[in-house]
Amino acid sequence: MNFSKKIFAFIKITRPTNVAITFFVVVVAIIISGNVQSHLITIVLASLAAALVTAAGNIINDIYDVEIDKISHPKRILVLGVLTKKEALFEYRFLNLIAVIISAYLSITLLIIVVISITLLFFYSYLFKQKPLIGNIIIAFLAGMAFIYGGYVSGNPLSAIIPALFAFLVNLIREIVKDIQDIEGDSKLNYGTFPILYGISKSKQLIVIITILLVVFTFYPFIFRLYKIEYFIMIMVFVNPLLILCIKFLYEQKWNNKLSFISSFYKLNMILGLVAIYVGK
Q1: Which of 48, 50, 239, 253 is the 20 to 30 A CA-CA neighbour of 16?
Q2: Phi and psi at residue 216, in whole multiples of 5°?
Q3: How many other CB atoms sit within 10 Å of the CB of residue 274?
């Protein structure tokens, strides 16, 4: 294999789209915290550290998921043998080390958040991903923590609580959808995810319940005048209709062919929700 293909594989295994999203989520979290005191270099370094943790988390997830990915995601780097597990593990450790160094340079608080995130991502891949809801909650928690992290960068973490809760609920739903999507591979490896233990019907019901909680929660910042009318308009025109549309897709006749599409919709909804919060501040 030539050098360029190997470099491409090292990049691809991190899932660069998700890494880029994490970077910009932290930037947005810093901006919407409403009390930006940080220099540009601090914002970039803090966002980079978070992005590197995400990249490393994706790598360790693929390392532990090689067998299941042979069924559910046969085109992933380790399944194809483009990288060895040893090479992937080296990249995982290297990226985490850089993230720790950067966060330690910025502040002890950011270092603590980074170390906690690295630890949770490791145990998610090693153990908790196989358990009902625990793994889902960990990933959703870390998605919300990215906003708290950004809030600490700007010196105003309290302002990041609402977007953090929004991110938590959206990502919790998306994680359950992904478990439904991976049910075939998970079953063959005797995983105990929620869809396997309680069935697809109960999983859909849980998604509906969390969606209702999320929709109700979106009204809170406007009712209590935390955000302006622009926020409410975007929520009512884009965010909540999209949430309802995802539920509709889940209950259509050929819903199982749309799971990847539905998962992408939740990612889009996350972005729209952030835009709504930003314009409403």
Answers
A1: 239
A2: -60, -45
A3: 21
Give per-residue pLDDT as tens, 71-105.
777 888 888 888 999 999 999 999 999 999 999 99
Residue 196 has which token pair? 């396997």
Q: Where are the domains of the chain?
A: 3-280
**How far is 259 from 80, CA to CA, in rounded Å?**
24
Nearest of 33, 266, 55 to residue 169 by alpha carbon: 266
**Residues with Cβ within 8 Å of residue 132, at least 6 apart in sequence:** 192, 193, 194, 197, 198
Backbone angles phi, psi at 217, to 5 degrees: -60, -35
Q: Distance between CA 136 and CA 198 in Å, rounded? A: 15
DSSP the chain: --HHHHHHHHHHTT-HHHHHHHHHHHHHHHHHTS-----HHHHHHHHHHHHHHHHHHHHHHHHHTHHHHHHH-TTSHHHHTSS-HHHHHHHHHHHHHHHHHHHHHH-HHHHHHHHHHHHHHHHHHHTGGGSTTHHHHHHHHHHHHHHHHHHHHHT-GGGGHHHHHHHHHHHHHHHHHHHHHTHHHHHHTT---HHHHHHHHHHHHHHHHHHHHHHHHHHHHHHTTSS-HHHHHHIIIIIHHHHHHHHHHHTSTTGGGSHHHHHHHHHHHHHHHHHHHHHH-
Q: Identity (one letter) of the amino acid at 218?
A: T
Q: How confident is the model at residue 38 (pLDDT cuts 50, 70, 90)?
A: low
* Tokens (6 digits) for 186: 């998970």
Nearest CA among 187, 206, 207, 185 for reference residue 196: 187
Note the CATH number of domain 3-280: 1.10.357.140
Spatial distance between the Cα atoms of 150 and 138, rounded to a whole number of angstroms: 18
Q: Which of 202, 225, 123, 244 is nearest to 194 (CA)?
A: 202
